[in-house]
Design goal:
The chain has about 400 residues and is of the alpha/beta class. The protein has helices at about 15-30, 45-55, 65-70, 85-90, 110-115, 130-145, 155-160, 195-200, 210-215, 220-230, 270-275, 310-320, 320-340, 345-355, 365-385, and strands spanning about 5-10, 35-40, 60, 80, 100, 120-125, 150, 170-175, 240, 250-255, 260-265. The protein binds NADP nicotinamide-adenine-dinucleotide phosphate.
Length: about 400
């Protein structure tokens, strides 16, 4: 009888929504996976519980002072680190066969790249990695022969719908979008929506940043850019369809007019389990989808009400550092909106103003995107003074 190897997993962003769901999948499959390292930010209460339960060999947190707090009252035995260096060490832990990249935002880029350089397969939730540095990341993954398995439910669906088909037969891929909490909200009302309203996503329970991005449709725009690199398709072959039920996770249309779709309940444990176990399929704890009475609607996105989606296609067309700039300006604007210091509709104005001021340069090294990210954050703060 063949002996089944237990796969070592490193989790970046273990205390977040994807991190917690990943640990649930692992908890259900102890004969397949073992946690070897965890990286988190500042939620030490939850991290302590995770350390007690999963006994990783290495943990990392955001800062040295958070690490001191973590060690207080719990002199756990595993090795530890902090900051970028700590996250990189967690990402490239020698015992990890796969690294789950689920730190929120641009902070996920360098640890994910470190994991690729260390030859780890990647379960990729951190879409910013490809948005900021798609060509470099894909080149490095190819060079190291590592698999980039999408965790974003849309990209997981496309990945599954492409399987067994020829890429040259693809007419287009169709990313579905729920439309978020403001799908039917009148445009004028968007001026006054509050963070609490924007955080009430109708179908998905996610981190705060991605939930606001889903309300503006920036998230879908970032996913268009992610898909461009992950599937090596031009923007003209990537379209978006609003699908309020979030049951069809995305589709591929072929030249003969056939559309292959992947369906499932809106539960991230599904795509996470698929990425962890690929090419096998395991149960990660997602429920069965009830088919009786299922209603599936699709509609065109309203680019007047949600102009951020159009901006993402513009950034792709600008090329080079423009997507990294779009991402950084959005991170700053969303942070200010969540603090109640920027109206919802001004998120678009900030991103478009910063993009307009940007002269993109070709991305030849990570330093190019890091510099563009820094520039865009400064530019976004300058722009926001006009709206503050
Ligand atoms: N949630 C979803 O359903 C979903 C779906 C598809 C893709 N994604 C993508 O997955 C990523 C994570 O999303 P999420 O919803 O899980 O976010 P989240 O709930 O906000 O969690 C973010 C995680 O990153 C950690 N973190 C933040 N900054 C860090 C840093 N500088 N160093 C180390 N750790 C840091 C946080 O730690 P603390 O909380 O301890 O501070 C937390 O563990 C995003 O890129 C998102 O776009 C998410």
């Amino acid at each position: 009888m063949a002996v089944k190897m237990i796969k070592g997993i490193a989790i970046l962003g273990s205390t977040g929504s994807i991190g917690r769901n990943t640990l649930e999948v692992i908890r259900k499959n102890p004969d397949r996976f073992r946690v070897v390292s965890l990286a988190a930010g500042a939620n030490i209460k939850l991290l302590k519980e995770q350390i007690d339960e999963f006994k990783p060999e290495f943990v990392s947190v955001l800062t040295e002072s958070v690490l001191k707090d973590l060690r207080k009252d719990s002199p756990f035995l595993c090795r530890s680190g902090f900051g970028l260096e700590g996250a990189v060490e967690a990402a490239s832990h020698p015992a990890a066969a796969m690294t789950v990249s689920a730190i929120a935002g641009a902070a996920g880029l360098l640890p994910t790249m470190a994991a690729i350089k260390a030859g780890k397969d990647i379960a990729l939730a951190n879409k910013e990695t490809l948005v900021m540095a798609g060509p470099l990341v894909m080149e490095e993954a190819c060079k190291k022969g590592v698999k980039l398995l999408p965790v974003d439910s849309e990209h997981s669906a496309i990945f599954q719908s492409l399987s067994g088909h020829r890429k040259e037969d693809v007419r287009r891929i169709i990313l579905t979008a729920s439309g978020g909490p403001f799908l039917n909200t009148p445009y004028e009302r968007l001026e006054t929506v509050t963070p609490d309203e924007a955080l009430r996503h109708p179908n998905w329970s996610m981190g705060r940043k991605i939930t606001i991005d889903s309300a503006t449709l920036v998230n879908k725009g970032l996913e268009v850019i992610e898909a461009r690199w992950l599937f090596d398709l031009p923007a003209s072959k990537i379209s978006v369809s609003i699908h309020p039920q979030s049951i069809v996770h995305s589709m591929v249309e072929y030249t003969d007019g056939s559309i292959i779709a992947q369906l499932g309940p809106p539960d991230m444990k599904g795509p996470i389990a698929y990425a962890l176990s690929y090419p096998e399929r395991i149960s990660g704890g997602a429920q069965t989808l009830g088919m009786a009475g299922l209603r599936l609607e699709f509609m065109e996105p309203d680019l007047i009400r949600f102009p951020c989606l159009g901006l993402s296609y513009e950034a792709l067309a600008m090329g080079g550092t423009a997507p990294a700039v779009l991402n950084a300006a959005d991170e700053v604007a969303v942070g200010m909106f969540l603090e109640g210091r920027l109206p919802f509709n001004a998120i678009f104005k900030v991103i478009s103003d910063v993009l307009e001021k940007h002269s993109p340069v070709k991305v030849t090294a990570l330093e190019d995107v890091i510099e563009a990210d820094r520039w865009a954050r400064d530019a976004a703060h300058v722009t926001m003074r006009c709206f503050g």
